[in-house]
Design goal:
single chain, 1037 residues, alpha/beta, Rossmann fold, 8-stranded mixed sheet, 6-stranded parallel sheet, 36 helices, 47% helix
Length: 1037
Amino acid sequence: MTDFSHVTFVSAGAGSGKTWRLTEELEHLLVVDGVDPARIIGTTFTVKAAAELRDRVRERLIASGRFALAEQSGGALIGTVHSVCERVLRRFAFEQGLSPRLDVASVEDSERLFDQALDDVLDPAPIREMNALGARLEVDRWQAAVKRIVDLARDNDLDAPALVAMGRENADALLAFFPEPVEDDLSPTLEEAVEHAVTRIDLDRDSTKTTKNYLSRLRTAASRLADPDCPWSLWMSLSKEKPAKASQAVAEPVWTVASRYEEHPRFHDDVRSYTEGAFEIAARALDRFAEHKRRAGLIDFGDMEQLMLRALDDKRVADRLREELEVLLVDEFQDTNPMQLALFVKLAELADRVILVGDVKQAIYGFRGCDQALVFDTLEELAEGDAVTETLEHNWRSRAPLVDYVNTVFATAFHQSLDPARVVLKPKRDAATEAPAVARWTLAGRGFDDRFAALAAGVADLVASGYPVVDPESKAVRPVRYGDIAVLARTNSRVEGIARALRSRRVPMKMTMRGLLTAPEIGLARAWLRCLNDDSDTLAVAEVVALAGGAPPEAWLADRLTWLADGKEGRDWDGGQPMVRRVRALREAAASLSPLETVVRVLNDVGIRETVTAWGPDSIKAAQRQRNLDALLDLAVLYEEHCAAQHEAASLTGFLFWLEEPSSPELDLQPVVTSGDAVHVLTYHRAKGLEWPVVVLTDFDDEEMNRLWEPRMAQLEGFDIRAPLSGRAVRWWPDLFRRRTRGVPARHAIEASDEGEECARLSLEEQRRLAYVGMSRARDLLVVAVPAGRLRRGAWLEAFDAPFLLPDGDTLELPHGTTVPTVARDFQAASGLAAAEPFAPRWFEERPPGNFPRTPARPSDAEAVAGATVAEVVAFGERIPVAGADMTRIGEGLHAVIAMVLVNPEASGAEDRAHAILEAHGAASVRAKDAVAAARRFLDFVRERFHPDAIRVEYPIAHLLDDNRHAAGRIDVVLETANGPVILDHKSSPLAESEWPAEALKHSGQLTAYRSAFEAAGRSAATWIHFAVSGGAVRVE
């Protein structure tokens, strides 16, 4: 048995402080164990997670005064799996026969290259054959199955010959559930039986509606059976349908012969040809895909993993890494795909210490190639090899009643697969409110649109109710806001439906919606670009005139016809639109511009932004149009990067063609407009790793999913952790039955087989894990939204085996006796829409060129403002002792100490750091203890008085004054509060409280300059002077 005693698996449930633990582990390795950062490899699931981990470690090192080590920590190789692979491959490029310059294809380019490869291998004949087979079997989307088979093959290091063999094996395995085919062709026998029944059924003797309908279907079937492409579903239907009893004797031969479709030799041939055909096409596409990438000099993410695996098999590379690699750290271990798992196993054999962090309850990315069974097998093998398992026991995220609720639901749901210790967490948050922790919303309505509208009404009602939540930053209790709420759905289409319902109720929401490239403003921009690109594109000119001018079609069309009737050149027509003339004026300059520069000039110089803003119909939609135009600029950047990667010349013509056929659906997403206080709408999968005070869960009435009929992986031989990819094969059985459950014995046999039951079990476990991810996102309130009436049989909700899940009153008693405060509400779509705010389009005023004074204005030099008044004086502490004549240095030192405490109030060693700061500023005469006390009492005052959502220090501002001078500076403290921003400026003057008002008014000019900058940005701010030495604050108006 392999020794894995150097491996530690940290089981980190949702909200258990995984990121904190990772940060602590890395800091301990660097500080206590003295590990050289260059000897650490760490992988994370996302680029953002990698950056966050690096930054947190660096911050903690700086906070503890280890500045050199903080600088050196950047030497640790921490990133996504692909970025780590890329770094290692570049280093060992020559040993592997690779160029040290690895051109990595983007996801979009990789998909485009695969589509080209698939087109290359698909001649018309196999396409017609597969389409005909699919039509007879009534199985569609074979191209999607081919793509998935290729993805699985690449994730599991399978080659083309292996796929061809697997096609035969899959066909054999599927057909084994059917009876052996007979030698005779059963089609003529069925045709004769149908014809006999049609002629012998006597409607005068049997006039029942059942028999009439049956006879009508037989007549239709008679004509279809003679067609060589007759679908097998017709045989299945004829095997189950019967007339009324009086005519059954005549019709019995029909259903008797039809029920033998499973024995039909042509049925067996069709199933085999369709299954093997998909694998053969996948095999050819896999090879051609690799060939396309070689010709283009590109590798993609899958190639990097495969090349890395090959490199680790090279003794030269393995020996070098064994000498250098001391610690391997893997985050989100449960989300690794098979190829990545093989990489980690090989790296684990080379490292002195391995730390794997993850939560098997959150393994939800099976559709991306992650194999939950393989991860479980690996963890079991690690445990048998003496690997250490640690469990983070506490939940730091959710209220205690929510933790109890989620614990109980999933201890029941996972009782067969997980030890309770891996599921149950202990709550750590203090009880700050007695409000309901779980809510049931019953949504009225027959269809999705009605229920989405009812959901929107529930969200609006929740905010209006003032439900109390604990602010994630200030920790103070306050009423819920829209931005505190997240609504989760299972599919992107449901997410978009919910977003539209919220928008129609004028509830602010954050969500990226599809349709960027079909948006009217993008259509107008593309028409302008076409005008610029080709002066003979008169259709583009017509589109510009129609969209930008706003004239009805009959008006501009008549103008166009008149123009041509006068014998004028068609390409010179501009419809009287000055914007068309502006575009044409750019044509000469555009010849020397890149596509991105051209798009910038068109968007900013022609007048498109003003035009689309005027379209409205409200301020949110106008802002969306502007963001969509910005997204077009982003697409131009992506196009130029694509051309650089493909070694192609970028041109405006190429950009326009590239927009016609985007290589990824991601390119068609409209950017989020709403910022700040807006509801988050997203899928369960996208919610992973995030949290909100309130989470609304939907789609629990959906049917349970079963991946039995999708391409998947099967472990045909025993699992070997030293070769985790061995003994694996792609399984794909086309769904020949769809929703038919009666009269299909083969289906029942497949589902009752060991493989069928294992698929059902794995699908059920995945659905439970997905629900766990959703339910564990909430901090204060979890809402389960279900449709009115009884849930359908097989609904997702049944997957939990927890009948107590839905509350129906003020309290919910859990099976072990704990009581959870709950609420149950009914909602329906509200009649009418909220009144829209009047929309008055505004645009920037044109400014004539002018001479601007070079001398900048400093807010701190501003003279006192006449008429400024003191609105409030607050004392909150005793004067701290200060000594020394240089109050400027003392003031700078106190400023820095206050900023340190505000940025990291819970950090230990504050006085030691304050002492170092004061010494650095030449203010060592101030005791560090007093400076920290002054900072903390100020923080207490800020929290108690303003309950800020965020505290920002050294806040930069820049503002153009009325005399055209540029004012710039930094505000000591800016608070983001529910009532708007609050500006606080520190002063180190040791004056008595009685002298504070007069002193504060001396700085009214400085405060006014700060406030004016916020007002120019459309925000109104309150202004205060903080007397740090004396212990008080004065509000100046």
